[in-house]
Design brief:
This protein has about 350 residues and is an alpha/beta fold. It is built from six helices and 21 strands.
Length: about 350
């Protein structure tokens, strides 16, 4: 098998930079292999650069003029996905999930079948869809359209999304009626993971959702109750120890042990103060996921732009900051994971 030696590289292994050492790659598979016995291999000197896995982008609404809610035809939409995938590679991303925010039912039903996992030549791999809505709390709507939000006790998953084969993650507000039953159903009957966000939920409501099967928190501190020293809200869940044992409630001890949730943060310097970002990361670095929450204006010049199927208002871009024109409401980000 053809082996390539990568010399003088510092390897990033589980977040730790190891001393320079050679890495051997089977070029027919792309896999790292043990040192071969055959001398005289083709080699590349990485000159002490860091060798790390490609990034995974869990939450992006689009970039380079493409917003995943905008649809005119299957052919054009698939072409736009390829355009996004090639921009992602330039940002160090190897694979990504397309985020579908709160939109009309017919928009979900047209677009979700196109977001099934697929590869692109020279581009990052699409791993499926992240549906951020419509089961969100209108009081924490952010840039979402509150009029399109749904109550899980009054709407079925199939009625909202149609097919779910491309959906890998759903963000919902756990305080809404029947949220726990939907979480239990989806996590036990499908491969869909549940994240908690755009929510006014209390800490205990969040614990109940974790007990039902939720595994993640969406863009912590943004679109949720603030962290308070006596009422930590969903943000307080990031500090759960491994196999957290719930305290006694109502005189009865719940012996179920809960793993801490994974949680995402937007590190653009706008959505979170750097000190807040550092505090959250250090609380549980092995469960922290950095996301961009990028929108279609990422990769475009500053200026005033039209809205999209999610946001029918004009959008003002200044650097990485994008707001609904005439307001201070943030609309995602324009940063990259690099």
């Amino acid at each position: 098998m053809p082996i390539l030696a990568l010399e003088n590289s510092r390897i990033c292994h589980h977040g730790t930079i190891l001393p320079p050492q050679p890495v051997f790659v089977d070029t027919s598979t792309g896999l790292i292999v043990p040192p071969p016995a055959t001398p005289g291999l083709e080699s590349i000197d990485l000159k002490n650069h860091i060798l790390a896995p490609a990034f995974l982008e869990l939450q992006t609404n689009g970039c380079v003029g493409v917003h995943f809610t905008n649809y005119s035809s299957d052919e054009e939409y698939l072409g736009n996905l390829e355009k996004v995938s090639k921009w992602m590679v330039r940002k160090g991303v190897g694979a990504w999930w397309a985020t579908m925010p709160t939109v009309e039912k017919d928009v979900y039903k047209k677009i979700l079948p196109l977001l099934k996992p697929r590869s692109f030549d020279g581009g990052a791999t699409l791993l499926g869809a992240h549906c951020e809505g419509p089961f969100l709390n209108p009081s924490k709507k952010g840039a979402h359209n509150a009029s399109l939000m749904q109550n899980p006790s009054q709407s079925s998953i199939s009625d909202i999304y149609g097919t779910t084969s491309s959906i890998k993650l759903i963000t919902l507000a756990p305080e809404l009626p029947s949220s726990d039953s939907i979480i239990t159903h989806l996590t036990q009957s499908t491969d869909i993971r549940i994240s908690l966000g755009h929510s006014a939920a209390s800490y205990n409501t969040g614990l109940s959702a974790l007990k039902s099967g939720a595994k993640c928190l969406t863009h912590v501190f943004n679109a949720m109750e603030p962290l308070h020293h006596r009422s930590p809200g969903l943000a307080g869940l990031i500090a759960l120890p491994l196999h957290h044992e719930k305290a006694e409630e109502d005189g009865e001890k719940d012996e179920q042990k809960l793993d801490p949730p994974y949680f995402s943060l937007i590190p653009d310097g706008i959505h979170l103060h750097p000190s807040t970002l550092t505090l959250a990361f250090r609380s549980n670095p092995t469960h922290c996921i950095l996301i961009t929450d990028s929108i279609e204006l990422a990769g475009l010049p500053d200026g005033l732009y039209a809205g999209n199927a999610q946001i029918p208002h004009q959008q003002r871009k200044v650097g990485n900051r994008v707001t609904i024109e005439g307001t201070e409401t943030l609309i995602g980000s324009c940063c990259g994971l690099d």
